[in-house]
Amino acid sequence: MPSDNMKKAFNILVFSVFCFLSPVFCFAQEDVVKIKDPEMAGEFFGMPVSMDNYRFAKAAILIFGPRWGGELRTPEEIEGRVWEDLLMSYEAFRRDVRVETKEAEDEVAKLLEAEKVDFDWKKDREAYTKWVLERVKEPAEVFENQIRHLLQLQKLRTQIIDSIVPVVTEEEAYQEYLDQYNTLGLELVQFDDLSAAEDFYKKMKNPKAWDKKGKKDPKFSQKPGFVSSQFLMDIWKIPRADVYAMLDLPENSVYKPSPVYRGYGVFRTLQKRVADKEKFNELRQSYFDQIKRKKQFGGFSDWLNAFKKDAKIKVFIGQGDQ
Predict the structure, then answer these.
(1) What span, in angstroms and rounded, lies between the C-alpha atoms of 9 and 3?
(2) What is the DSSP letter of 41?
(3) Best exposed site among 64, 103, 110, 243 by fewest CB in 10 Å?
(4) Which of 68, 33, 30 has the alpha carbon at shortest distance from 53?
(5) In this structure, is the dihedral angle defined by the CA atoms of residues 192, 193, 196 and 198, taken in order, positive or negative?
(6) pLDDT at residue 53, as a whole number
(7) pTM for this structure?
(8) How far is 62 from 66, CA to CA, in rounded Å?
(9) Angle at 104 between CA 99 and CA 107, to 5 degrees
């Protein structure tokens, strides 16, 4: 638990960073950000989080998007990330994670380059300020503070990930190689329930039946392409045992019903590429590194979940209050 001095110091820092332009505190989304609000949005570790801080963090996400993880598709996912970012900002302060001026300036330059602006933002501040106001509807100073905020969170995340030193076994690295190198070209037909898939399988066990059906209706099946076993397991959610059983079959074989990401599939193998163990010896270290990175990312997720639990986040606002 943070001490009282820590709480006071953090509140001062948060105010100075999030409320840099205290007289004029406006953002891109008028329904999200208002003039300074004394109300509290919630708390963590027993410390209050102001509406201004909440709105600052939310606007940064809405303007710049998430800097890691998947796309935030729902209001609930956005709200969850806002509170994660606020909590991470506290931890970045506690660990004295700093963003140097050059780092922030380089990030601004990259963003402007991607937008293909026709001015030098350092030399022509008037054009830059006007562009920011027109593009994101906020003052340039707030825009830059949001960038510093997001860079600080990214530096903290990297710091935590790099501090995790997982154990990687030979078996894990080799399995990663197999999953990525073993490749299958399939076609499949999806069904909502297993009984329908089993009935179809009984009729279509002979590959010639697929050819006949394909001539009548070329769109009767789906073809994911010539893709890795990892892709079939991660994206199509085909169980590992079924993917590897199909790899063992000759090309142009029909495989029994198996679960897929939605319902069940009946499969026909079109082509395959089977991993060569000798190739693994050449690429061994890269697969050790991949497994290590995966475990580090998983370790970060575990750390963040535990940190959120310890923080005892309390949210005082509803969707209509924001």
Answers:
(1) 10
(2) E
(3) 110
(4) 33
(5) positive
(6) 92
(7) 0.76
(8) 8
(9) 130
Distance (Å, whole) CA 146 – CA 243: 45
HSE of 152, CA atoms in CB hemisphere, 13 A: 28
Q: How many CA atoms lie within 13 A of 253 on its CB side?
A: 11
Longest Cα pair distance anywhere in the chain, in angstroms? 77
Reported as a single tens digit per residue, the pLDDT across 250-287 is 999 999 999 999 999 999 999 999 999 889 999 999 99
Place of tokens 């909502």: 192
Q: What are the two backbone dihedrals, phi and then psi, of residue 74, each rounded to the nearest 5 degrees? A: -120, 160
- pLDDT at residue 245 in the model: 97
- Angstrom distance (rounded) from CA 259 to CA 49: 45
Task: Work out the number of other CB atoms within 10 angstroms of the CB of residue 97.
Answer: 19
In angstroms, the Cα distances linking 193 to 197, 224, 291 are 7, 21, 35
Pairing of strands 183-191, 222-228: antiparallel
DSSP-assigned states of every residue in 172-195: HHHHHHHHHH-EEEEEEEEESSHH
**Token representation of residue 4:** 């009282």
pLDDT tens digits, 131-182: 999 988 889 999 999 999 999 999 999 999 999 999 999 999 999 999 999 9
Separation between Cα atoms, residue 233 and residue 220, nearest integer Å: 22
The span from the CA of 194 to the CA of 183, in Å, is 26
Task: Please give the sequence-ordered ranges of beta strands (E in DSSP) within the chain, or none if there are none.
Answer: 40-44, 47-50, 183-191, 222-228, 254-259, 264-273, 314-315
CA distance 267 to 252: 10
> In angstroms, rounded to a whole number, what is the distance separating the alpha carbons of residues 121 and 302?
41
Q: How many helices (H) and strands (E) does the chain have?
A: 12, 7
Residue type at 62 in one-letter notation: L
| Contacts with 223 (C-beta within 8 Å, 6 or more apart), sequence order | 185, 186, 187, 270
